[in-house]
# Entry
Amino acid sequence: MLLKNLLTAINPVRLTAGSGADLAEYDRVLGLDINTLYDIIFIWINVIVIILVLSWLLYKPVRKFLNDRKDRIAGELAKAAEDMQVANDARAEYEGKMLAISGEREDILDAARKLAGEKEVAIIASANDEARLIMERAKTEIEREREKARDEVRTQIVQVSAMMAEKLIGGGMDEATKSRILDDAIAELGDAVWTK
# Structure
């Protein structure tokens, strides 16, 4: 009975109670006889043939696929390394440019400071020149005013002298005499040294 249940589980063919031939057939399945050995050898030969055929058919495509994948990964790694090198070069170039810009900025600032100093000197020199010109004009104007004041004083002295002379002489002077006395007084006063 146990054998019957076991065989039923292995082979779903219904066993009838009275069929001994069926049992003999199932005995062969579990037994190690020459047919089982032939079946095992045949199965192993089939497996080996299938493995050889599949390896012959699939080995090259699978190998090619794996080599292509390996080459693609190596190419991507090389491209990544190249991109990293390009990025590092760009970074170094950027840092170099930043240093150059900093140096150039300092040069520009120094040039601007120098130019500002030169302009300062030029402005101060121009202001000094203008102040000197103003002083010279003021001196010239003072000298002119001094000359004008001298001329006025001379004229007043001559007029006062003429009036005094007229009083002394007594009123009998004509215009020609007055003019001549006035010219002589001016000539004498012109030769005199004026003090400040």
